[in-house]
Protein backbone atom coordinates (compact mmCIF):
# COMPACT_ATOMS: atom_id res chain seq x y z
CA UNK A 1 0.00 0.00 0.00
CA UNK A 2 1.29 3.45 -0.89
CA UNK A 3 -0.14 6.77 0.35
CA UNK A 4 -0.06 9.42 -2.38
CA UNK A 5 -1.96 12.40 -3.69
CA UNK A 6 -5.12 11.85 -5.73
CA UNK A 7 -3.38 12.91 -8.93
CA UNK A 8 -0.49 10.56 -8.32
CA UNK A 9 -2.89 7.68 -7.55
CA UNK A 10 -4.68 8.28 -10.86
CA UNK A 11 -1.37 8.42 -12.69
CA UNK A 12 -0.12 5.20 -11.07
CA UNK A 13 -3.28 3.39 -12.16
CA UNK A 14 -3.31 4.88 -15.67
CA UNK A 15 0.38 4.01 -16.17
CA UNK A 16 -0.26 0.43 -14.96
CA UNK A 17 2.15 0.74 -12.05
CA UNK A 18 -0.62 -0.32 -9.63
CA UNK A 19 -3.85 -2.24 -10.21
CA UNK A 20 -6.11 -0.21 -7.91
CA UNK A 21 -6.10 3.33 -6.63
CA UNK A 22 -8.30 4.60 -3.82
CA UNK A 23 -9.00 8.28 -3.35
CA UNK A 24 -11.25 10.46 -1.25
CA UNK A 25 -12.73 13.28 -3.26
CA UNK A 26 -13.47 14.16 -6.84
CA UNK A 27 -10.88 13.08 -9.36
CA UNK A 28 -10.94 12.93 -13.09
CA UNK A 29 -8.38 11.27 -15.31
CA UNK A 30 -9.57 10.06 -18.71
CA UNK A 31 -7.06 7.21 -18.53
CA UNK A 32 -8.59 5.73 -15.35
CA UNK A 33 -11.99 4.24 -14.67
CA UNK A 34 -13.55 5.79 -11.56
CA UNK A 35 -16.18 4.09 -9.40
CA UNK A 36 -17.70 5.48 -6.22
CA UNK A 37 -17.33 3.11 -3.29
CA UNK A 38 -19.16 5.16 -0.66
CA UNK A 39 -20.08 8.74 0.17
CA UNK A 40 -19.88 10.08 3.71
CA UNK A 41 -20.17 13.68 4.95
CA UNK A 42 -17.59 15.72 6.84
CA UNK A 43 -17.58 15.28 10.59
CA UNK A 44 -15.88 16.60 13.71
CA UNK A 45 -13.44 15.00 16.15
CA UNK A 46 -13.28 16.57 19.61
CA UNK A 47 -11.31 16.07 22.81
CA UNK A 48 -13.13 13.99 25.44
CA UNK A 49 -15.24 16.07 27.81
CA UNK A 50 -15.12 19.07 25.45
CA UNK A 51 -18.13 21.37 26.13
CA UNK A 52 -19.40 20.78 22.57
CA UNK A 53 -19.71 17.03 23.25
CA UNK A 54 -23.19 17.73 24.68
CA UNK A 55 -24.39 18.61 21.16
CA UNK A 56 -25.64 15.98 18.72
CA UNK A 57 -24.32 17.88 15.68
CA UNK A 58 -21.92 20.78 15.12
CA UNK A 59 -22.15 23.74 12.74
CA UNK A 60 -19.68 26.46 11.80
CA UNK A 61 -21.45 28.75 14.30
CA UNK A 62 -20.86 26.18 17.07
CA UNK A 63 -17.16 26.14 16.16
CA UNK A 64 -16.75 29.92 15.87
CA UNK A 65 -14.76 30.27 19.11
CA UNK A 66 -12.83 27.03 18.75
CA UNK A 67 -9.25 26.44 17.66
CA UNK A 68 -9.67 24.43 14.46
CA UNK A 69 -7.21 21.74 13.48
CA UNK A 70 -7.71 21.96 9.73
CA UNK A 71 -7.02 19.51 6.96
CA UNK A 72 -4.54 21.09 4.55
CA UNK A 73 -6.25 23.05 1.80
CA UNK A 74 -4.82 20.81 -0.92
CA UNK A 75 -6.74 17.85 0.57
CA UNK A 76 -10.39 17.24 -0.37
CA UNK A 77 -11.72 17.87 3.15
CA UNK A 78 -9.54 20.95 3.46
CA UNK A 79 -11.02 22.35 0.27
CA UNK A 80 -14.56 21.99 1.64
CA UNK A 81 -14.17 23.33 5.17
CA UNK A 82 -13.43 26.99 4.41
CA UNK A 83 -16.44 27.41 2.06
CA UNK A 84 -18.74 25.85 4.69
CA UNK A 85 -17.62 28.47 7.21
CA UNK A 86 -17.81 31.27 4.62
CA UNK A 87 -21.35 30.25 3.63
CA UNK A 88 -22.33 30.47 7.31
CA UNK A 89 -20.62 33.87 7.67
CA UNK A 90 -18.37 32.44 10.38
CA UNK A 91 -14.65 33.11 10.59
CA UNK A 92 -12.59 29.93 10.37
CA UNK A 93 -9.99 30.13 13.17
CA UNK A 94 -7.29 27.70 12.08
CA UNK A 95 -4.88 26.85 14.91
CA UNK A 96 -2.88 24.39 12.82
CA UNK A 97 -3.13 22.87 9.36
CA UNK A 98 -2.14 19.22 8.90
CA UNK A 99 -1.57 16.87 5.97
CA UNK A 100 -2.87 13.71 7.62
CA UNK A 101 -6.15 12.97 9.34
CA UNK A 102 -4.35 10.80 11.90
CA UNK A 103 -2.33 13.82 13.02
CA UNK A 104 -5.47 15.97 13.24
CA UNK A 105 -7.16 13.30 15.36
CA UNK A 106 -4.16 12.95 17.66
CA UNK A 107 -4.07 16.72 18.18
CA UNK A 108 -7.83 16.87 18.86
CA UNK A 109 -7.61 13.88 21.19
CA UNK A 110 -4.80 15.65 23.04
CA UNK A 111 -6.93 18.78 23.53
CA UNK A 112 -5.35 21.09 20.93
CA UNK A 113 -8.69 21.89 19.33
CA UNK A 114 -11.50 20.51 17.22
CA UNK A 115 -11.00 19.07 13.76
CA UNK A 116 -13.34 18.79 10.79
CA UNK A 117 -12.42 15.83 8.59
CA UNK A 118 -13.74 13.56 5.88
CA UNK A 119 -16.30 11.02 7.08
CA UNK A 120 -13.92 8.11 6.64
CA UNK A 121 -11.37 9.66 9.02
CA UNK A 122 -14.20 10.40 11.46
CA UNK A 123 -15.30 6.75 11.33
CA UNK A 124 -11.74 5.66 12.11
CA UNK A 125 -11.55 8.13 15.01
CA UNK A 126 -14.85 6.85 16.41
CA UNK A 127 -13.59 3.25 16.17
CA UNK A 128 -10.58 4.33 18.24
CA UNK A 129 -12.87 5.69 20.96
CA UNK A 130 -12.61 9.40 20.13
CA UNK A 131 -15.54 11.82 20.42
CA UNK A 132 -17.11 12.54 17.02
CA UNK A 133 -20.09 14.56 15.84
CA UNK A 134 -21.70 15.16 12.44
CA UNK A 135 -20.86 18.50 10.82
CA UNK A 136 -23.78 20.50 9.43
CA UNK A 137 -24.60 21.53 6.84
CA UNK A 138 -23.82 18.10 5.46
CA UNK A 139 -20.88 18.18 3.04
CA UNK A 140 -20.61 14.81 1.25
CA UNK A 141 -17.26 13.46 0.16
CA UNK A 142 -16.91 10.27 -1.89
CA UNK A 143 -14.39 7.45 -1.63
CA UNK A 144 -13.56 6.25 -5.11
CA UNK A 145 -11.81 3.27 -6.64
CA UNK A 146 -9.63 3.86 -9.68
CA UNK A 147 -8.79 1.12 -12.17
CA UNK A 148 -7.22 1.01 -15.61
CA UNK A 149 -9.42 1.57 -18.66
CA UNK A 150 -6.96 -0.41 -20.81
CA UNK A 151 -6.67 -3.70 -18.96
CA UNK A 152 -8.86 -5.87 -16.74
CA UNK A 153 -8.14 -6.23 -13.04
CA UNK A 154 -6.10 -9.27 -12.04
CA UNK A 155 -8.19 -11.82 -10.11
CA UNK A 156 -6.71 -10.93 -6.72
CA UNK A 157 -7.33 -7.22 -7.26
CA UNK A 158 -10.91 -7.92 -8.38
CA UNK A 159 -11.48 -9.97 -5.20
CA UNK A 160 -10.09 -7.09 -3.14
CA UNK A 161 -12.57 -4.66 -4.75
CA UNK A 162 -15.40 -7.11 -4.07
CA UNK A 163 -14.31 -7.26 -0.42
CA UNK A 164 -14.28 -3.47 -0.22
CA UNK A 165 -17.88 -3.47 -1.45
CA UNK A 166 -18.81 -5.89 1.35
CA UNK A 167 -17.14 -3.92 4.15
CA UNK A 168 -17.71 -0.34 2.97
CA UNK A 169 -19.33 2.04 5.43
CA UNK A 170 -23.04 2.61 5.01
CA UNK A 171 -23.99 6.06 3.74
CA UNK A 172 -26.09 8.26 6.02
UniProtKB/TrEMBL annotation:
Transmembrane segments: none annotated. It comes from the Bacteria. Residues 5-164 form the LysR substrate-binding domain. SUPFAM superfamilies: Periplasmic binding protein-like II. PANTHER family: TRANSCRIPTIONAL ACTIVATOR PROTEIN LYSR. This is LysR substrate-binding domain-containing protein.
Amino acid sequence: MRITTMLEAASLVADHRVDIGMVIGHIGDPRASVRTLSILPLGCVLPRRHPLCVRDTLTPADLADEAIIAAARHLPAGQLIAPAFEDANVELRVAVEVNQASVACALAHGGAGVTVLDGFAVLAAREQGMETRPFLPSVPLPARILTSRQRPLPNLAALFVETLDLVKPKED
